[in-house]
Amino acid sequence: MYAEDAAAVATPEQPTTAAVAEPTAEATPAPQEKSTWEKILANMPKISGYLQTGWNWAQDSYDNSHATSSFQAKRLRLIMDGKVGEKVDFRLQIEAFNGIAGSTNGNGQKNLQVMDAFATWKVMPEFKIRAGQFYTPLGYENYDISPKTLETVDFSNIVYRMACRNPYEYNFVDYGRDLGVMLMGDLFDSGKGFRYLHYDLALTNGSIPCKDDDNSSKDFYVSATVRPVKFFNIKATYNYGKYKDNSKIADGSKYNPMHRFVVGAWYNDPQGIDLRAEYGLLKSKVDGQKRLDEQGAYVLAGYHAGKWLPMVRWDMYRDKMQNTVNPNGETIQKCNANYNYNRILVGVNYQLFKNVTIQFNYHHFFFNDKQYTSNGEEYSGRNQIQLMGRFCF
Amino acid sequence: MYAEDAAAVATPEQPTTAAVAEPTAEATPAPQEKSTWEKILANMPKISGYLQTGWNWAQDSYDNSHATSSFQAKRLRLIMDGKVGEKVDFRLQIEAFNGIAGSTNGNGQKNLQVMDAFATWKVMPEFKIRAGQFYTPLGYENYDISPKTLETVDFSNIVYRMACRNPYEYNFVDYGRDLGVMLMGDLFDSGKGFRYLHYDLALTNGSIPCKDDDNSSKDFYVSATVRPVKFFNIKATYNYGKYKDNSKIADGSKYNPMHRFVVGAWYNDPQGIDLRAEYGLLKSKVDGQKRLDEQGAYVLAGYHAGKWLPMVRWDMYRDKMQNTVNPNGETIQKCNANYNYNRILVGVNYQLFKNVTIQFNYHHFFFNDKQYTSNGEEYSGRNQIQLMGRFCF
Amino acid sequence: MYAEDAAAVATPEQPTTAAVAEPTAEATPAPQEKSTWEKILANMPKISGYLQTGWNWAQDSYDNSHATSSFQAKRLRLIMDGKVGEKVDFRLQIEAFNGIAGSTNGNGQKNLQVMDAFATWKVMPEFKIRAGQFYTPLGYENYDISPKTLETVDFSNIVYRMACRNPYEYNFVDYGRDLGVMLMGDLFDSGKGFRYLHYDLALTNGSIPCKDDDNSSKDFYVSATVRPVKFFNIKATYNYGKYKDNSKIADGSKYNPMHRFVVGAWYNDPQGIDLRAEYGLLKSKVDGQKRLDEQGAYVLAGYHAGKWLPMVRWDMYRDKMQNTVNPNGETIQKCNANYNYNRILVGVNYQLFKNVTIQFNYHHFFFNDKQYTSNGEEYSGRNQIQLMGRFCF
Questions:
Q1: Which residue, among B243, B218, B118, has the nearest Cα to C71 in the 3D structure?
Q2: Would C34 be classed as within a structural domain?
Q3: Is C28 exposed, middle or buried (0-12, 13-18, 19+ CB in 10 A)?
Q4: Residue B273 has pLDDT above 90, yes or no
Q5: A251 pLDDT tier (thresholds 50, 70, 90)
Q6: What is the band of C374 on the pLDDT scale with cuts at 50, 70, 90?
Q7: How many domains does chain B have?
């Protein structure tokens, strides 16, 4: 329905964050005389979305079954772009197959969850204000890319373990969303269809979305994307916040500090090479003692060959904390070792129709430490296959 | 999208209940010849809604933190007005940030909840029939006003403690909705753009919405609004029902009686003074013994000065039951004393754009009895600040 | 909004399954020149749905109250038909008053649940591919009919006890949906507005929808509908799958086999007689021992007399397993005896307006074995009355 949508299906969205946030702005044609009906239509909320569904196979699952295979309703995103006014847009995004731990229903079924609900006041291209619940600018995959434009089926662990998860207060994916206000803009027009600089400054709760914050401290984000030429840009984001220590070494405080930093570079020719790398850090110290120390990285290389997009990705994640033993001989869990792996992904996308993409991903996991199934079998690797269709409407 | 919406943002809706229920009727223009496409468009469900999001600060919260501050997703209302036929409309309203106690997900997050789902057969202006789940006519704030048209961010306690809550069966806000049938109409056309009398007669489950009733007794509502002149009206509503005694002195019966009565008056000049007052009673006796005895009131005064609406409101609520001590020396909880307060609100709305309103509310609570934080600190007052944006789409 | 919808309200949908799945295909007119706005409109997702609300009265309920009566929000279906491409459609269906056991919220309230979320690639009329979460082809009522087109308010027990429920893994209604892929098509054009053969071949998880499967075995469905003349057809469906034994005699295995078979015949003249019968079997043996043995049937007879549709239905269900007593004298529950009944339904539908149908159903249950209320009263029969309005938008 939008210009963005048509282009975005097979070719990953170009990293102009403006395109993510304000898809309607450029898409609506402006005929010289509008009938009453055309005016009504122009002001109606625009509904769009996509279904990602298919087959997942995994070997050596954690629950001791040798392999699992399932048809999956991976994602069903419903998006509503409402027109609030001449310069104000509203965006609602709902995940209809939300299966995040703790939020499924009593039968363990996935259900609906509000992801985005924000209004954006576009004062001018150089300055916009966003209020509500929105995706934070922490890295390309969390801000500039959605599963609709992502090359692979799943994100790297920079998203799942860093951007989408608050390691202090909880330990589950929160879709990388938060409640607050964000200032942003695009500066220095190149005259060649892009601007040299994009910036984001956000103040957010620093807690779980769809919930009031229970500490008074707010999170702060600063992010800049520099685009020297049309197909290439680099991005860096820093985040600081204070949290309750729930997940690891509980000390009751609601005000433990945490730092997150993600830096990356992206070259993307829609008719050629797609090359992206990101590196992320997550750290916390309380009274000079390390509480959190995590690190993630990935490199993705693909090539847009007509309707095909073959790709390879390497990604890693490392929780560098060590479990300790207390004077009573009990193990103090400080580390999520089962996420400590390197992983190779080989994949290919095929654009069957304008709005239909078939995605094939093969993963091999190399665990840093040996893993054990519940009946004690040891394993150091793991394979996964995903075959998905992505249908945009 | 509707004529109503445009007017409603900064100027509170005039208390013609018809305007609340049937917004589409007047709003759709009627061109002489319709193309196929215009006919399709005219019969499509109309989607609208509003996001209310901002900042909340409160001092002396009950959980012993001295002050709390949080960005909030206060309300996200999604409204669908479907055309069932020439004289039959359908209304669906969903709260996408429903945080009512007991209905949040396993992670404590707000989620989606159906509020309204009803069909209205408009036989004639004097007689309409509504069936389904709808808002009951108990007072202006529950029936004639929505958060989209309310002057303040939150309702008074006549809504939260009386209309929106069944003190027998449960003790949480139910949005003032119930399942049943309602007859209503507007009589005696003044010839000056309004009718002198509006009436509502409803028969409802008298239990929680979105759930089957577990007693056979039904609730009854009768309500009348008399409007002698365009800008002024008075309204009175009486409700009777029978309930299970869960919340206070459980006696196992599903058939304890309860009476509710709300009366009010409203003067509202869209270019001038807005003055509204309501008084409510809630009472129950079983075997000559008082079981429930509550009282609430408020006076709101504002002035529509162009894009500004400054206002002041006083409201009070009093649960007049007394906790008692039984022969074993145990306290029998009969009263919700922490709601027993007077409160002053000073606020101002500014209409930034046609569909964007900025709302600032400052509250001071005067508790009737001393309150205590969980570590024993005593307090008799409390302050709250709300700064919200209301974005209609 | 669709041609199908207008016809479907009072006259049950003719059993061409193609009409269920692809309502938009025929409905959109194709003018010779489209304006930009017409193109936008043509590609917008189409939203429709229906509310079914009214009154339910039941005598001799299981919970020992002599009779219950309640206004009910029976069903609110929201349907979105999105256009993915020239030959690819997307269908989303949400039940907004889902009250399935285990999925209501903490206050026992019904809430939103995704039922359907699938894409259909219509390669040609003879061959279509569907992927996602969809209704399985097990019988007319689960596949060819929805509550919008069903003559009665509720389905027969072939749907609720066989198609909509997996007696091994769980024991609640799952809407007869599953995740997987389905091939289907209509063969042998009669040249008189119908095709002689419809077929469905499906491979699905064989577990609960909206959830990943936890065994590796997949379910298989094969179904054929033969239509020798326009108003008459016969249908047979066979399903095989493997399941975890949760509900009866748990043995820990995830791979117990189950067979389901439903056969039926339907004569339906939209201006005359509507006569339909189905018979279903559900069986399982493990190591030569019967684990499941159930049987269901119904005969429905109605007559389309203008706006009226009077009808009578007999249906039965029989769980033929017997509870046993183990060496310790404990009863081993192998049978759901409270569903073992014959039932007579007498009903009438009246089409008040094009999109409004009033439905009256009277049921009498004849239990095979005596039933007992919780305080020991015995009963062998039960009455139920349903008075509902069905409003389509």
A1: B218
A2: no
A3: middle
A4: yes
A5: low
A6: low
A7: 1
Residues of A near C (Cβ–Cβ under 8 Å) read 1, 29, 31, 37-38, 41, 46-49, 51, 53-54, 56, 65, 67-73, 76, 78, 96-97, 99, 104-112, 353-356, 389, 391-393
User: Is the Cβ–Cβ distance between A337 and A294 less than 8 Å?
Assistant: no
Residue C157 within a domain: yes
Q: In terms of C-beta density within 10 A (0-12 exposed, 13-18 middle, 19 or more buried), how is residue A300 classed?
A: buried
Measured in angstroms, the CA of A17 and the nearest CA of chain C are apart by 25
CB atoms C179 and A53 under 8 Å? yes
Q: The domain containing residue B168 runs over which residues? A: 3-29+44-392
Interface-testing mutation among C24, C86, C211, with chain A (most A C-beta atoms within 10 A): C211
CA-closest candidate to residue C221, choices C243, C236, C208, C207: C236
Nearest chain B CA: its distance from C290 CA (Å): 38
Stretch C374-388: mean pLDDT, rounded?
Answer: 82
User: Which whole-number Å values give the CA distances from B364 to A81, B310, C127, C163, in the listed order?
Assistant: 38, 17, 69, 58
What DSSP letter does each residue of C263-290 carry, written as one string? EEEEEE-TTSEEEEEEEEEEEEEETTEE
Average pLDDT over residues C218-233: 97
> Which chain B residue shows the shortest CA-CA distance from A214?
B68
pLDDT value for B294: 94
Three-class DSSP category at A126? coil
- Three-class DSSP category at B338: helix
- Measured CA to CA, the distance from residue A321 to residue A293 in angstroms comes to 6
Strands A308-319 and A289-303: antiparallel
How far does the CA of residue A306 sit from the closest CA of chain C (Å)?
19
Contacts of B114 in chain C (CB under 8 A): 73, 76, 96-97, 110-112
Lowest mean pLDDT among B27-31, B199-203, C51-55, C365-369: B27-31
- DSSP-assigned letters across all residues of B191-249: SSSSEEEEEEEEEE--S-TTS--SSS--EEEEEEEEEEETTEEEEEEEEEEEE---SSS
- State the chains in contact with C (3 or more Cβ–Cβ pairs under 8 Å): A, B
Residue A252 has pLDDT above 90, yes or no: no
pLDDT at C372: 72
C103 or B372: which carries more pLDDT confidence? Answer: C103
pLDDT at res. C171:
85
Minimum distance, in Å, between the CA of residue B180 and any CA atom of chain A: 27
Q: Please, are residues A255 and A218 in contact by the beta-carbon 8 Å criterion?
A: no
- CA distance to partner chain C, nearest, from residue A81 (Å): 13
Inspect the interface and report whether the beta carbons of A211 and B108 lie closer than 8 Å: yes
CATH number at residue C302: 2.40.160.10
CB-based contact A114 B76, cutoff 8 Å: yes
Decide if C36 is inside a domain: no
Contact C213 A1 (CB under 8 A): no
| Percent of residues, chain C, with pLDDT higher than 70 | 87
Question: Comparing C-alpha atoms, which of B21, B239, B16 is closest to residue B121?
Answer: B21
Q: Tell me, what's the pLDDT at A168?
A: 85
In a domain, C333, yes or no: yes
- Do C1 and B47 lie within an 8 Å CB cutoff? no
Q: Shortest Cα distance from C281 to chain A (angstroms)?
A: 26
Put simply, the answer to whether C216 touches A37 (Cβ < 8 Å) is: no
Give me the pLDDT at residue B254, please: 84
- Strand-pairing partners, residue A67, are A59
CA–CA gap between residue A225 and residue A234 (Å, rounded): 6
Contact C36/A56, CB-based, under 8 Å?
no
ipTM value, please give it. Answer: 0.87
CA B153, CA B307: separation in Å to the nearest integer?
A: 17
**In whole angstroms, how large is the CA radius of gyration of chain C?**
22
Q: Using CB atoms, which residue from B90, B100, B104 is nearest to C51? A: B90
